[in-house]
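Reopening this one. Same input as before:
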Amino acid sequence: MSTLRVAAAGVRSTVQDQGRFGHLRTAIPPAGPADPLAFEAAQLLVGNDPAAAGIEIVGLPFRFVLEAPRLVAVTGREVSVRTRGRVAGWTAVFARAEEEIVVEGSALSRYAYLAVSGGIALDPVLGSRASYLPALVGPLARPLAPGDTLPLGPPRYGADQAGRAILAPYDPSVQVVRGPHADRFAGAAEFFGGQAFRVSERSDRMGVRLEWPPLAATGGEILSIGVLAGAIQVPHGGDPIVLLADHQTTGGYPVIATVIRADLGRVAQAAPGEELRFYGVERESAVERLRDWRRIASG
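Same output, byte for byte:
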């Protein structure tokens, strides 16, 4: 079996797939990628099933070596791949055996995704290869380290697919559907009409915290409810939190809206100090946006 060897692991890099579903009742969230479309795009570029496992990278550069030639792709915000030259992210690249490959980015590169043709072939845990570090769940439930060797599955694409590209989808406008408690907020109309919020430094894989202006809910406490990635909770201080892949499984704060899946990566990749604007859409529009993106990405 061919392998990928990690030479430099960035700040925190983990093995992820689309996520671990069906375990919320045992307080285990799906995990998976913080930016699901970027992850899926990387897999499609190298010919993998979207559910294949890859690597989420926080803190670039990331360096690795392949035992055998393979297609690789890196996605994320302002990322690139350096082999014999530098290639823009969101592009399939054919890498030679034993050649050091470097994933690079900028100060705006929060989450990068590496896919290799054949996928990372670790044994699933609870039906998934995703790493959920808070509970040490996953086949490799720790950050990657230099010297780690990961097995790869059989590839479907070869060198003839190199150069294929997908357009990166980042934009400060984010579409949302109304949440179950939207009517509790006097400022809901402004929120759904494109009100700007600043991204806080207090953001991670659990969620992106937004600052100014604060949102005030009425109606007192609510019973705890199940939550999912994209839900926008509003704690007592009024600063909304957009939940990401490592979110808690229940929450007792009002949910004003949910970010549509096609735009969740725009929130996850936003840098501290940048602004995001939210626009309300109907559920049907949210579903169609995701379908449109997948049609384009699948070529």
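So the earlier flakiness isn't reproducible anymore. For the record, Residues 2-165 form one domain.
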